[in-house]
Design brief:
mainly beta, 16-stranded antiparallel beta barrel, two-stranded antiparallel ribbon, globular, single chain
């Protein structure tokens, strides 16, 4: 990997998410990936109006779902002389099931078929040049092979927050990705641009310049989550954004991270026009600022992870006017729901390996983490004196187990509960999943 080496036993919990290549054995070709299968039962209503009139859906029956949230293929190549290439192709929810068919029983009519939903994304595609001598850095239990300085250009991970920087399924205990960060930030946040990164002593640093976010895709339920995407065949880059991250490996198994993002988000769409006589919104910027701190501890048979994120969006009142549904065609990709001025996510989870107490299981190198998780998040904190939508204010608890029969595979189960303010109904669920993460070449 360009940012981390091969992990062993629970060390996979700390592998950097933006590292899709490794050449620790001198291999020129690298092939790997990760994936998840999840089964869930939700003991609350799935009706679209359950937040607008919650009393009507308090006693609705439970519902279930099967899903494959992510199936990812990593492919990288070392050209030599410091030049490397990395790609990550991701199938979300098994990809799309669309096609055009000729229906013989309907007078040979051509029809567009949509058999299922899902997405296929090129989440990473970059060329990198590395400078300086190779260095072995011990980060926790991981021997990291890196370069003193690196320049990477292409489609890259924006490593803001714990979830984006460490997003593979062995890097969190819950069956699904941590809900708070996954709600308010793009996840996984990937965009086209250039990154400068390297290592110095116990520090890893990275600075990215990427295409800006699009305020027309922000909304109340997800804050800026959708803003890194593009409904077009290209990504508008009328505005740019900058991200930075520093990781400090304080001692064996202990890491602290600090990351952030800043960039304007208005006038970053296509076509580059905002309706209104006399162009009244020409000077609206919609500056997004995100700050995040996080930590991981992987030692003494414990794994502890925590993060806190806070975001601010300027010009939010004018953005909500621009986004108003009356100003756009009905089939416009603009998300007309209001967006909040601020958003927050705080989470912490801790798990203990109970198999560490059993000699037979230690000899087999199997692990069983019993864990608990708490998080608080709010995707819509409005400007002063604006309408509140308190269903976005969520406390969530989860307890469960992660069983590692071998180091690359985790069998997961958790019970979780979203605790919402009155009059909204709480949302408990049971989730079971299995995940893998590994390298084949």
């Amino acid at each position: 990997m360009a940012g981390a080496g091969v992990a062993s036993d629970a060390e996979a919990q700390e592998v950097a998410a933006d590292s899709v290549m490794q050449h620790v054995k001198g291999n020129r070709l690298s092939l790997g990936g990760y994936g998840e299968v999840a089964l869930s039962r939700m003991f609350y209503s799935d009706h679209v109006n359950r937040y607008s009139t919650p009393s009507n859906y308090k006693n609705d029956p439970s519902h279930g779902q099967f899903d494959i949230p992510h199936a990812v293929i990593y492919l990288g190549y070392d050209f030599g002389k410091g030049w490397t290439m990395g790609t990550e192709i991701e199938f979300e929810h098994t990809g799309t099931g669309s096609a055009i068919e000729n229906e013989a029983d309907e007078a040979a009519e051509w029809e567009y078929e949509q058999e299922k939903g899902g997405e296929v994304e090129l989440e990473q595609f970059w060329i990198q040049k590395s400078f300086g001598r190779a260095a072995n850095v011990k980060a926790g239990h991981i021997i990291v092979f890196g370069r003193a300085a690196n320049v990477k250009a292409g489609h890259i991970i924006v490593p803001v927050g714990l979830n984006n920087a460490y997003h593979e399924p062995l890097n969190y205990f819950t069956v699904y990705r941590p809900e708070g960060e996954n709600t308010i930030l793009p996840s996984t946040w990937h965009d086209t641009g250039i990154a400068f990164w390297g290592r110095s002593g116990k520090f890893r640093y990275e600075v990215d310049v990427v295409a800006g976010l699009n305020a027309m895709l922000f909304n109340r339920d997800k804050w800026i989550h959708h803003g890194a995407g593009s409904p077009f065949e290209f990504k508008p880059a009328n505005q740019m954004g900058a991200a930075a991250r520093v990781d400090f490996y304080a001692m064996k198994g202990l890491r602290f991270g600090l990351s952030g993002y800043v960039g304007n988000s208005v006038h970053n769409t296509f076509p580059n026009d905002i309706q209104g006589d006399g162009k009244p919104y020409d000077k609206v910027k919609g500056t997004v600022v995100v700050g995040s701190i996080d930590m991981t501890l992987n030692r003494w048979n414990w794994i502890v992870r925590g993060q806190a994120d806070y975001g601010n969006l300027s010009d939010v009142d004018k953005i909500n006017i621009i986004k108003d549904a009356k100003a756009h065609a009905s089939n416009s990709p603009v998300k007309s729901a209001m967006v909040g001025k601020n958003a927050v996510s705080i989470g912490i989870e801790a798990g203990y390996d109970v198999f560490s107490l059993m000699e037979k299981m230690r000899q087999k190198q199997q692990k069983m983490y019993v864990f608990g998780r708490y998080e608080y998040y709010d995707s819509y904190i409005p400007a002063k004196n604006k309408e509140q939508f308190d269903y976005t204010n969520v406390n969530r608890i989860a307890v469960g187990v992660n069983y590692y029969p071998i180091r690359q595979i985790a069998v997961k189960a958790d019970w979780s509960k979203r605790i919402l303010k009155s009059p909204y109904n709480n949302e408990p669920s049971i989730n079971v999943g299995i995940a893998y993460e590994g390298w084949f070449l």
